[in-house]
Specification:
Helix content is 38%, strand content 13%. The chain has helices at residues 12-21, 58-64, 74-91, 105-116, 130-141, 159-169, 192-198, 247-254, 267-274, 293-309, 311-331, 359-370, 397-414, and strands at 47-48, 98-102, 122-127, 145-150, 173-177, 179-180, 185-186, 202-206, 225-227, 240-245, 348-352, 372-373, 375-376, 385-389. α2 runs antiparallel to α10.
Length: 422
């Protein structure tokens, strides 16, 4: 028994107070615990060859299992600094306004457009798939005006296309997806930044499905804002959206006439946490939100693996394995969605569904019999293609060969018999 002098917290008066405050008498009866949660969680390993997420390498998964830290703990701040350095390398930028958002790649789109646009501003949006259409919707939700230029799936925009629209609409921002994963189109972006700047317009790029899989040079190509996702080529868990603003874009943000409608996505507030911007204090980071601690561990490790391989080799590996897939599809007597190889996205590849075959039957067969994921089309490509992802850890020659084998087998098993001529 504790000595009386050290046992004051357990005095009768305090015990009565404690019991009264913790009494649950008179409350409604609780519903019983869900039976589903009595089962242990078991997730079967599958090979994710869809448009994302991609499989995480064991090294990334091990990093995610590191002990949780506070979001302002000095050791976690070091992780944040490591992430910033890695993202500056991936984006090929010197911008200090480079960071990771706690959210998926879609959060990157929200941050980019919400911070660079104010009510009644005009945004020019390149639409050749779902993500251009989605960006136009985000523009409108922020009270700005979206002006879209359109191309059919597989077609890309020229400098002439965009210059004509810049002259007509006088936008504040021009949005373009480098990797339009819904139609698996690779949009060349070199030259567009300089073009936009001649018309006093900021250049925003969606690189969610392309970063690390194809060349990207933020500073050299005059990109003012770029965002991506952790779950694609970086092969990290979903939940972190890499993002970077140029000095020109940051000047626009700091001179806004109105507040960003979302506190969570306010880049200036995020800058106080990530230690950039004119209001940041290098000696005292400001609390903004509880960051995705474990997801950031994984992103940091995914960036480390990309840096160890080197960007040039990373790009070459993705190009080589995409070519291997394309050649295999042609040998099977099938077609890729896009005939021009220069406009094919090497990270997400669209294979045309042959006549007499239901894409979903084949995808379900691949999952049931081989634990391999193939996805269908999205937006304008829905029902017409399979989208086969070869990103990061999953971009290997063995995975290409397996994908071709499983796809061929699935088509043979699921093809509808020819109609009778009788």
């Amino acid at each position: 028994m504790l000595p009386r002098a050290k046992n004051r917290l357990f005095s009768p008066a305090l015990n009565i107070f404690f019991c009264r405050t913790m009494s649950f008498q008179g409350l409604p009866s609780c519903r019983p615990p869900p039976k589903e949660l009595a089962r242990p969680l078991k997730v079967q390993h599958k090979i994710l060859l869809g448009p994302g997420p991609s499989n995480c390498p064991p090294r990334v998964l091990a990093a995610c299992s590191q002990p949780i830290l506070g979001h302002l703990h000095p050791d976690f701040v070091t992780v944040m600094d490591d992430i910033k350095a890695g993202l500056k390398y991936m984006f090929q930028t010197q911008s200090e306004a480079t960071f990771a958002i706690s959210g998926t790649g879609h959060a990157g789109m929200e941050v980019a457009l919400a911070n660079l646009l104010e009510p009644r501003d005009v945004a020019l949006v390149a639409c050749n798939g779902l993500w251009g259409e989605r960006a136009a919707g985000v523009v409108e939700r922020n009270g700005a005006v979206a002006k879209c230029i359109h191309k059919d799936q597989g077609e890309v925009f020229s400098l002439e296309d965009v210059e004509k629209a810049l002259q007509e609409h006088h936008p504040t921002v021009f949005f373009m997806a480098q990797g339009e994963s819904s139609t698996t189109t690779l949009q060349p972006i070199e030259g567009f930044g300089q073009l936009c700047h001649r018309y006093n317009c900021l250049f925003v790029v969606d690189a969610v499905a392309s970063l690390g899989g194809v060349p990207f040079f933020m500073d050299a190509w005059g990109v003012d804002c770029v965002y991506s996702g952790s779950q694609k080529v970086l092969s990290s868990p979903p939940g972190a959206a890499p993002c970077s603003f140029s000095a020109l874009a940051w000047k626009k943000i700091e001179s806004r006439r109105t507040k960003v409608t979302s506190f969570y996505f306010d880049a200036e507030e995020l800058g106080l946490y990530w230690n950039f911007g004119s209001k940041a204090d290098p000696k005292a980071r400001k609390y903004h939100h509880t960051a995705q601690i474990s997801a950031f561990y994984g992103l940091r490790e995914g960036l480390a693996m990309a840096a160890e391989e080197g960007l040039e080799k990373l790009w070459e590996r993705h190009a080589r394995n995409a070519e291997r897939l394309w050649d295999g599809i042609e040998r099977m007597g099938m077609q890729m969605l896009h005939t021009n190889k220069n406009y094919r996205l090497p990270t997400v590849n669209a294979v045309r569904v042959p006549e007499g075959v239901n894409w979903k039957d084949v995808s379900m067969y691949a999952m049931k019999h081989h634990l391999v994921e193939f996805s269908g089309g999205l937006g304008p490509s829905a029902g017409k293609v399979w989208r086969i992802g070869l990103m990061g850890y999953n971009s290997t020659s063995d995975n290409v060969d397996m994908a071709l084998r499983v796809l061929k087998e699935g088509i043979e098993k699921c093809r509808s018999p020819p109609a009778s001529t009788l």
